[in-house]
Amino acid sequence: MSIKPKMVQWDPTDIKKELLKKYPPKVARKRAKQIMINEATECEAPPEIVANVRTIPGIITMRGCTYAGCKGVIMGPTRDIVNITHGPIGCGFYSWLTRRNQTDPGVDGENYIPYCFSTDMQDQDIIFGGEKKLEAAIQEAYDLFHPKAICIFSTCPVGLIGDDVHAVSRKMKEKFGDCNVFGFSCEGYKGVSQSAGHHIANNQVFTHLVGENKEPKEGKYKINLLGEYNIGGDGFEIDRILKKCGITNIATFSGNSTYDQFASAQHADLSCVMCHRSINYVADMLETKYGIPWIKVNFIGAKSTAKSLRKIAEYFNDPELVKKVNDVIAEEMPEVEAAIEDIKERTAGKTAMLFVGGSRAHHYNDLFAELGMKTISAGYEFGHRDDYEGRQVIPNIKVDADSRNIEELEITPSPDEFKARKTPAELKALEDAGLKFRHYDGLNPDLDKGSIIIDDLNQYEAEKLVELLKPDLFCAGIKEKFSIQKLGIPMKQLHSYDSGGPYAGFKGAINFYQEIDRLVNSKVWSYMKAPWQENPELTATFVWE
Ligand code: CFM
């Protein structure tokens, strides 16, 4: 089959105008700064993108809240910590098993992930305060499970009424003596999105947990894998590959993790950052306090996986590891290449749109590129400017009142535990050879010129974009799934993977190719007509007529 010509010829500047046309002037001006044409030639918009700012009230955003980022994203995947939501039952209920972070319950079988713990606040608690109820809930969880740790998550009303979750946690920790209890001021409104929740979670994990286990860890090549959450089993596949290469993963933050992994993270010799947005804070803090350098990796896409493994081997600079990594890649790649060869002729030239939280809109571009597909529009729900433009812009990011609201920890080198893993000369030699430390280029350089980059895309713009550009595939989350499919465009969930996965690593890539092939080449979409396409206006009569 030959490569299909592009369905629509379009000028990105016109598309941007169309997207903004219906907005009141003030809203349009604000949104214009969040919609960017890659390597823009337009003059009305500044060259940089505006990101990590409040969503305009009334707009149906794709974002989640700060509590979701803290409790669900960062702390949720750790199996042996009891996570208690302090708040009305809805917050706990709707964050109960809705993110597909898988776990292996291990030999101890200590796994609280299937549970939903909440203080179930009532009107009375809002009026008279909920601290007593929280104390009782912590006690009950301790009596029932005797866990290693109990974490308390604040929801919006907790911040509004002023319950001190930290004081209650301290009191209970002291009382128990053998259970680490700490809280998070991660009220839903605390930041402009779930991104603030990541930062709050990282700060508390670093303060209350990292470094607690002083027992040295075995392993020749010890790494931390930061920002990998084992969605659909991704982490299992990455761990399989790392193990095969002889690389020891001390701690994953936080997919398939345990309390002890966080507590031992300071024993690793390199931090590998997958999701830059959610975890770069921990990578920086581990480096400052313990001397562990960090590099950016990406295990989404077979080529990116191979590249990331080679980067790790380069860092350890041991011919034995370099050889092992190359052998593993040589062993895994033929199956991947065979799958690409089979599928690519059916997918090449097709177009995709990627709108996911903070990293996947970038990472999945690599998988589509392997299938010969092109990302014509992409963006993050809650990424910051550095996730788009690269970390070099960090010093120029305007710190607004909302970001000032989130604590920045002052970290200093640990007097007895800081150990530089490489000498400055060794680091320099590695850098000269092309290995970049503390470096992330962001999404923009990987997208073609003229692609449309949109921050905090909303429901209206998503539908408009699909109508105008008619992509072959739209990727986002459950909130977008059915409205997009009703437009006759296949939709792939990149948060939950539509119950599929893994998509990371070599085996994951093959899974992904096959699913995308089935989706974009299914005839069903062309047969489908939405009701309003057949009958543009609904008519009805009253029962008494
Ligand atoms: Fe990082 Fe994530 Fe993402 Fe994220 Fe998320 Fe997620 Fe995501 Mo959903 S940590 S930023 S807050 S890669 S839950 S595993 S899929 S929005 S793009």
Brief overview, please?
This protein is 43% helix and 12% strand. By secondary structure, it is of the alpha/beta class.
Your description of this structure?
The protein starts with 11 loop residues before the first helix and ends in an 11-residue tail after the last helix. β13, α20 and β14 form a beta-alpha-beta unit. With 545 residues, it is α/β, with parallel strands linked by helices. It has helices at 12-20, 25-32, 66-75, 89-94, 123-128, 131-145, 156-161, 165-176, 194-208, 234-245, 259-264, 276-290, 302-316, 319-347, 360-370, 385-389, 401-404, 424-432, 459-469, 478-485, 505-520, 524-527, 531-534; strands at 35-37, 81-86, 117-118, 149-154, 180-184, 221-228, 247-254, 270-273, 294-296, 351-356, 374-380, 452-454, 473-476, 491-493. It has 23 helices and 14 strands. α1 (12-20) packs antiparallel against α19 and α3 (66-75) crosses α9. The strands form three sheets. A six-stranded mixed sheet has the order 1-12-11-10-13-14, with helices on both faces. The chain has a four-stranded parallel sheet with strand order 3-2-4-5, with helices on both faces. It has a four-stranded parallel sheet with strand order 7-6-8-9, sandwiched between helices. GO terms for molecular function: ATP binding; iron-sulfur cluster binding; metal ion binding; nitrogenase activity. Keywords: ATP-binding, Iron, Iron-sulfur, Metal-binding, Molybdenum, Nitrogen fixation, Nucleotide-binding, Oxidoreductase. InterPro entries: Nase/OxRdtase_comp1, Nase_comp1_asu, Nase_comp1_CS, Nase_Mo-Fe_asu. This molybdenum-iron protein is part of the nitrogenase complex that catalyzes the key enzymatic reactions in nitrogen fixation. Pfam families: Oxidored_nitro.
